[in-house]
Amino acid sequence: MLTQREIISTIEMLKNEHLDVRAVTLGINLLDCASHDPEIFKKNIREKITGLARNLVPTCNEVGDKYGIPVVNKRISISPIAVAAAPFSADQMVEVAKTLNEIAREVNIDFVGGFSALVEKGIARGDRALIEAIPRALSETDRVCASVNVASSKAGINMDAVLLMGRTIKQAAALSADRDGLACAKLCVFANIPQDIPFMAGAYLGIGEADAVINVGVSGPGVVKRAVDRALEAQPDLKLGQISELIKRTAYKVTRVGELIGGEVADRLGIQFGAVDLSLAPTPNIGDSVGEIFQSLGLLAIGVPGTTAALALINDAVKKGGAFASSSVGGMSGAFIPVSEDLNISRAAEEGHLSLEKLEAITSVCSVGLDMVAIPGDTTEDTVAAIIADEMAIGVINRKTTATRLIPVPGKKAGDRAFFGGLLGESVIMPVNNARGANPFIRHGGRIPAPIQSLTN
Question: How many CB atoms lie within 10 A of CB 352?
Fold first, then answer.
C-alpha cells in the first residue's frame, strides 16, 4: 500500500509531470477463428473482437475519470495473423488487414497490433504471405501495426528473413511516399520479441497467453526527470547510486498506478489481467522526454560520451522499481529511445550529438533498439537489412529484446526533415554509412547460429 506521502507525491506526478497510463491493450486470441475461407475468417474475427472489445474504450475512460489518471491510448493486440490466417495468399492477407482496420474504427481503438510473423528459425507459407502483404496492408490502413521476429537467442538470426524485411521496408516506404514513408512507422523488426507487449507497433498476443488478457503500458519520463531535478537541486553532490535508488522508487510508484488502472479495467470487463509494462516511452511534448533525463543527469545531450552508461543506470533502476511494485511486470519495461517521438532526442540528432552509430551502441542497454529512425530514401534494401542484422545481433548475443523501426524517407536525404504527425512526431533524417552500396555479406543468407549461451537446457 502507498503511504500518505507517496499518495501526495503521485498526485503531484499527475498534475504537473505528465504521468499517465500510456496504453491499455486488450489481447485477443484469434486462433479459434481459423478457416480455409477468408470470408468466414473475417466474419469470425469481427464477431470475436467486437464482442470482447466493445466496452474497452468506455471502460478505460470511466476508470481513468474515477482516479483522475488519463488512459491515453486504447489498443488491441491479436494472435499473429501469419499463424491465424496461415492458408491465405498475400492479397487475402491485405483484405484481412483492411477488416482489422474497420473493426478498430468500429470499436474506436487507436491501433490493432498483431499483423505479425515469427520467423527466427524459418519462414512458413503463412509467414511469407504475410510479409509480402505488409507494404500494402500498412499503406492502405491507418490503425493496423505489424511486427516480424527474425531472431532469437535460442535460434540465432534468420538472415533470409532479415534481407526480406529490408526489401519489405523499402516497399512500404515507397507506397506511402506522399506521407514520408509513414507505413514504416507501423512496422517493427524484432529479436526476442516478448509475448505481452502493450506498446505499438510491436504488440501482439503470444501463443502462450490467455484467450483474452489486459496488458497495461505506463510511461513516466517527465516524472523521472522532475524527481532527478528536485533531488539534485536539494543535494547537487548526490552520488549515482543514490540517483539510481531515486529512479527506482519513482518507477515503483508509477508501476503501482498502472497496476491499479489495469486491474480495475480487467475486473470490469471480466478479462484476465496480464502485465504492466513500465517503459519510459516519450512523446513529442516538452517535459515528456527521455532525452531530457540525460541532461538532468549532467550530460550536454543524449549521444555525447557518457550516454550509454547513463542509460544503463536509468534502465536498470526502472526495471528494479517496476519488479518490486508488481509481480506481473512484462512487455519490455525500460527506456525507449524513439528518435522522432522525442523532441529532445530529435534535436540531439539534428545538432550532431547523436549519430546512428552511437544510437546503435545505446541500444545495447535500452529496451527496444533503433526506434523511429528516419534515414535517406535512397538507402538500399541491402543496407537497411544490414542495419537490422546489426541490431538483431545485439539482442541475440545479449539475450535481450531489440528491434528496429526504420523509415527510409522517399525523395529525402540526410539533413532533411521527415514529418509523421501526432505522437509519431518529426525528425531530421540521419546519415547512413554506405547507404547506397550493395552488401554481399547480407546476400549470403542462411542463418547466423545461436550463441553458445543458448545451450541452457
Answer: 10
For residue 132, report the phi and psi dihedrals to the nearest 5 degrees. Answer: -65, -30
Torsion angles phi and psi, residue 189, rounded to 5: -110, 125
Q: Which CATH number fits domain 1-337: 3.60.120.10, 3.40.630.10, 3.20.70.20, 3.40.50.980?
A: 3.20.70.20
- Give me the residues paired with residue 171 across strands: none
- In contact, 190 and 401? CB cutoff 8 Å: yes
CA atoms within 13 Å, Cβ hemisphere of 57: 12
Assess whether pLDDT exceeds 60 at residue 5.
Answer: no
Q: State the pLDDT at residue 377.
A: 93
Cα(186)–Cα(403) distance, integer angstroms: 13
- Rounded distance between C-alpha atoms, residue 203 and residue 48, angstroms: 18
CA distances from 230 to 44, 63, 223, 286, 294 (A): 53, 30, 11, 18, 15
Which grid coordinates are listed for 253? Answer: 510508484
Does residue 151 sit in helix, strand or coil? strand
Range ranked top by mean pLDDT from 35-39, 292-296, 423-427: 35-39
Residue 221 half-sphere exposure, CB side, CA atoms within 13 Å? 30
Burial status of residue 239 (CB atoms within 10 A of its CB: 0-12, 13-18, 19 or more): exposed
Cβ neighbours of residue 198 closer than 8 Å, sequence gap 6 or more? 23, 24, 25, 75, 77, 215, 216, 217, 275, 277, 331
pLDDT in tens, 248-267: 888 887 787 788 888 888 88
Please measure the distance between the N-terminal and C-terminal CA atoms of the chain and give it in whole angstroms.
39
Q: For residues 59 and 265, give the distance between their C-alpha atoms in angstroms, rounded to a whole number.
A: 6
Phi (first) and psi of residue 197, to 5 degrees = -75, 125
